[in-house]
Write a structure and sequence with these properties.
The protein is mainly beta and 48 residues long. It is built from no helices and 4 strands.
């Protein structure tokens, strides 16, 4: 199965500022990572 490594911490930024979220995942393709906040999905600027 997939392996996911996330170092959790609280991240706070003001509207318009940039936050960097990192996650390492290994497993059989296709893998997908989704980030969410209190109000819903965070749209990625870059798909890796």
């Amino acid at each position: 199965g997939p392996k996911v490594a996330v170092k959790t911490h609280q991240e706070s930024v003001k509207r318009g500022e940039t936050a960097v979220l990192r996650c390492e995942a290994e497993g059989d393709a296709p893998l997908g990572i989704n980030w969410r906040n209190r109000v819903g999905r965070i749209e990625p600027i870059y798909d890796l």
